[in-house]
Specification:
Layout lengths: L7 H14 L8 E2 L14 H11 L4 E8 L14 H17 L4 E6 L2 H13 L6 E4 L6 H10 L4 E4 L3 H4 L3 H11 L16 H16 L3 H15 L10
Parallel strand pairs: 1-2, 2-3, 3-4, 4-5
Length: 239
Amino acid sequence: MSTHPRDYSVVLDTLKDYSSSCPEWLVVPCFGIHPWFLHQVDNQQWKDELEGYLKAYPNAIVGEVGLDGHRYHPDTRELASPMDQQVQFLHDQLVLAHVYDRPVSLHAVQCWQPLMTTLSKLRDKRQLPPKLYFHAFGGKVGLVDQILSLLKSIDVYFGFAPVINFRSPDKTAQVIRRVGLSRIVLESDHEDATLVMESLVQGAEFIAKVLEVPVESVVQTTFLNSQRLYNLGDPNKSS
């Protein structure tokens, strides 16, 4: 999962390494520009570069992209990237995902009004991507209803990262109940791969407790959800 064009080579190296050393693994490359780093991007080249990678890798998704209303520059105390710039970049990346029929991993923090406005405009123009994944979803229960109502025409999934969402366990439990297991994908949000499995287990156990189902059911269902999200074949044929 990239956050900046400088990550693309790392993504491809990782894809190559795991494809050769662990052929039984399913590794999905993700290309996109995170809202934290827009101010570092060449406005003349980024779109063509991203489109080139989507063309070259038909199984790649767009991510991690989105909006962030809480990331401030330590010196200026202003948003690291102005919200109007964030909205334009997100719009353009979502349109690319629509054109190339790719899922999107979405970052959204304290930006729900501009995000919903952007998604509403794209819906009206029939330019939404086919699938949208709300990574480390921090919205409230009522927002889940708004999102599902707005995005009826596409597949929508949600993730809950222990390192972020479990800081507010009661709120997260309420949201998980509203989302339901059929729309959840496990995630860690760790950069350090050695921490990932522990977080995935923690997430599965928390979801199982909240929904009062066996952990095995959570693991199996979220695995199938992830296959659907990332277009990894027919999930009904997977073990």
